[in-house]
């Protein structure tokens, strides 16, 4: 039979890939904990309306990237393309809209029917943080500082730049939108077909176009700055001074809009030049309307998500698996004592392995192949005397140690 392949745009995480992935999640979870965020886990599929209501019918994600299907009971189901809508749905479903603030961290797989390329997959993984409740720019700055500190703990913050923009409030955005429609209508002959369609339905989306000819036109489009209401301007000024307070460096980029409809005020992206076209590693913004879209009361919120695959690719060194100890029984009679020593080592928190068969030579070859730091060799004669030979495979030295003291001995001499 022919061998089956993974579905296009999906990847298996094995060995170093999985270690990098786990290191990103573990690190992010730890730093999020320092900021007072609790982890939530939502289902990876939801009622399709969770996404169609919130991300915007005209967004790329909803209009062409969702994995949607009707299940056997006739319900419209979608594999989640992102995490924020599900967190807001869960906030409402679990009756938490009056228990604010909620500070939520999550990690898990997301699904989008995209054209696969480096850093862009159909099943990918995100970590994310949502700070639901506060409407103050201090919260936006704190959420961004959390993102920055996670990148710093991963050792990759120096490869990124934080680009920051404001999308204003609804009133600012309405007048900006009119100005954009006026500007792009004059140029409509030069717009890509996609963007001509956006012009009617959602002109802000043109600013996010990946088409080079659109981008040339976007360069001279009107900026939000001129349309900010006094309240929106106060928020924008407050955000920048709060970021200074957290010691977060940024560059204002008036071209940043996010790909989803639910953002207002703050929009930001940590970008890198080290990943080719897929340069955005961590991105988010304020989404004050989303909880209401899920049937809850109007609730301010700010959050971000980061692509784990992209973060993994930037990691400076691969996280290494713990160096194991190999237990080497010489002859079947030594096996029971070998199992005892192996379990004592594991109880002491030391990664330990033993082959299932083979003579001493084979077993020592296997110890080298798995990169063991120590071999614990037990012959019949040693077992009778209640001792083992502990060989330091890096140094080439060997020492006789009492059976009951092997774990303590290795713990005391192995490199930290
Ligand atoms: P892009 O402009 O690269 O398509 P996006 O605006 O669609 O990104 P978001 O929805 O904001 O991205 O998701 C946040 C992060 O998740 C991105 O910055 C990126 O790191 C990661 N991401 C998004 N889509 C994919 C994908 N298909 N494969 C891998 N990572 C992804
Ligand atoms: Mg996208």
Low-confidence stretches: none
Task: Name every ligand kind in the structure.
Answer: adenosine-5'-triphosphate, magnesium ion
Straight-line distance between termini: 48 Å
Q: Determine the CATH superfamily of the largest domain.
A: Bira Bifunctional Protein, Domain 2
GO cellular component, one term: cytoplasm
GO biological process, one term: histidyl-tRNA aminoacylation
Domain Aminoacyl-transfer RNA synthetases class-II family profile: 24-324
Family: Belongs to the class-II aminoacyl-tRNA synthetase family.
Your description of this structure?
The protein has 416 residues and is of the alpha+beta class. Helix content is 38%, strand content 21%. It has 15 helices and 16 strands. The strands form three sheets. It has an eight-stranded mixed β-sheet. Helix 1 (16-34) runs antiparallel to helix 5. The longest helix is centred in the N-terminal third of the chain and has 19 residues, at 16-34. The relative contact order is 0.12. Bound molecules: adenosine-5'-triphosphate and magnesium ion. Adenosine-5'-triphosphate (ATP) binds next to strand 6, strand 10, strand 11 and helix 11. The site of adenosine-5'-triphosphate has 18 residues, from strand 6, strand 10, strand 11 and helix 11. Homodimer. It is found in: Cytoplasm. Belongs to the class-II aminoacyl-tRNA synthetase family.
């Amino acid at each position: 039979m022919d061998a089956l392949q993974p579905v296009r745009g999906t990847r298996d995480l094995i060995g170093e890939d999985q270690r990098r992935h786990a290191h990103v999640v573990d690190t992010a979870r730890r730093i999020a904990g320092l900021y007072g965020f609790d982890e939530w886990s939502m289902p990876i599929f939801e009622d399709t309306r969770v996404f169609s209501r919130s991300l915007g019918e005209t967004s790329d994600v909803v209009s062409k990237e969702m994995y949607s299907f009707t299940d056997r009971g006739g319900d419209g189901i979608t594999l989640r393309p992102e995490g924020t809508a599900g967190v807001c749905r869960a906030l409402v479903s679990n009756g938490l809209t009056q228990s604010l603030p909620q500070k939520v961290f999550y990690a898990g797989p997301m699904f989008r029917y995209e054209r696969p390329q480096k850093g862009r997959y159909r099943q990918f993984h995100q970590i994310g943080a949502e700070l639901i409740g506060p409407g103050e720019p201090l919260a936006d700055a704190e959420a961004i500082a959390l993102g920055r500190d996670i990148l710093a703990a991963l050792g990759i913050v120096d490869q990124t730049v934080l680009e920051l923009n404001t999308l204003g409030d609804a009133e600012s955005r309405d007048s900006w939108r009119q100005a954009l429609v006026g500007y792009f209508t004059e140029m409509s002959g030069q717009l890509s077909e996609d963007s001509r369609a956006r012009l009617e339905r959602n002109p802000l989306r043109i600013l996010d176009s990946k088409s080079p000819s659109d981008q040339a036109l976007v360069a001279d489009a009107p900026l939000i700055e001129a349309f900010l209401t006094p309240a929106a301007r106060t928020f924008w000024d407050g955000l920048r001074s709060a970021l200074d307070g957290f010691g977060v460096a940024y560059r204002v980029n008036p071209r940043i809009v996010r790909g989803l409809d639910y953002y207002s005020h703050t929009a930001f992206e940590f970008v890198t030049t080290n990943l080719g076209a897929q340069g955005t590693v961590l991105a988010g913004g304020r989404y004050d309307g989303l909880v209401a879209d899920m049937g809850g009361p109007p609730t301010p919120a700010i959050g971000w998500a980061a692509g784990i695959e992209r973060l993994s690719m930037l990691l400076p060194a691969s996280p290494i698996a713990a160096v194991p100890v190999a237990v080497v029984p010489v002859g079947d009679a030594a096996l029971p004592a070998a199992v005892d020593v192996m379990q004592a080592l594991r109880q002491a928190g030391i990664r330990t392995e033993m082959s299932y068969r083979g003579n001493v030579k084979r077993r020592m070859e296997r110890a080298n192949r798995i990169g063991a730091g120590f071999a614990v060799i037990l012959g019949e004669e040693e077992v009778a005397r209640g001792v083992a030979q502990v060989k330091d495979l890096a140094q080439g030295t060997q020492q006789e140690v009492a059976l009951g003291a092997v774990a303590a001995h290795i713990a005391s001499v192995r490199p930290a």
